Amino acid sequence: MNPLTVAICEDDVDDERRLIDLVERSPVPARAALYSEANAFVEDFTPGIYDLILMDIFLGEDAAPSSEEPEGLRAIRRIRAVDPNVPVAFVTTSKDFALEAFRLDVARYIEKPVTQAQVDDVLSFALGMRDHLPGLRLRSEGHDVNVPISQIVYMEQSGHYVLIHLSSGRVVKVRGTLDEVSANLDEPQFVRCHKSFVANLNFVEDINESLMSLQMFGGDWVHVRKASMRDVRRAYEDWLFQMARLKG
């Protein structure tokens, strides 16, 4: 089983260590990415990277409620604008934001101190959500698989096979052509940048025009045909603008 990727957003060192320990002790395999600042997390966030977000509502501020919306709550509001599906659990010292959590479709509202049972529960929930994400139903090496569309970084033609690279690092090998496999990808973030490559704009980290390539999440490079470079750059810039506007 591929481990879940969990974003732990917590600025209290002791609480962060406790969450890391509970995640590592869980029977549900998971690996954690750590954030102590809300804006940094939102800026780094890309749909499909995380299977679960554990968010301290008062991230970056005192735990005493104030008249302003807490940073953690505001961060999830911005995340929901670009990803309505990623499971979120609020971790908090306050009961005051349960209604806002409901409106943001937060999966769990956990009061500190967090227990092992609570972490096991939310990790199990996230695992179930991941297994039922919208995906491509494909045949891979003798097995029927569901490839989550939001986790596809890029696809490449390699001989008689298509290699589908996922944000988890997993590579799904499917016999067929890129045209056949990508025919059901209607989402606007996917671009055919080369006869042998389809890239997900969500996971593009840089464009190198001298190398005619896209640097993707995870460090791989995807080729771009020369005639398509201008259109690919324009599509990428438009996508970045759209994501920035949605995040506010």
From TrEMBL:
Pfam families, per the entry: LytTR (PF04397), Response_reg (PF00072)
Alphabetical keyword list: Activator, Cytoplasm, Phosphoprotein, Two-component regulatory system
Residue ranges occupied by any HTH LytTR-type domain in the UniProt entry: 136-238
GO molecular function, one term: phosphorelay response regulator activity
Positions where 4-aspartylphosphate occurs in the chain: 56
PROSITE patterns, per the entry: HTH_LYTTR (PS50930), RESPONSE_REGULATORY (PS50110)
Domain Response regulatory: residue ranges: 5-127
Cross-referenced InterPro entries: CheY-like_superfamily (IPR011006), LytR-like (IPR046947), LytTR_DNA-bd_dom (IPR007492), Sig_transdc_resp-reg_receiver (IPR001789)
Domain of life, per lineage: Bacteria
Keyword Heme appears in the UniProt entry: no
Function: Required for high-level post-exponential phase expression of a series of secreted proteins.
UniProt name for this protein: Response regulator transcription factor
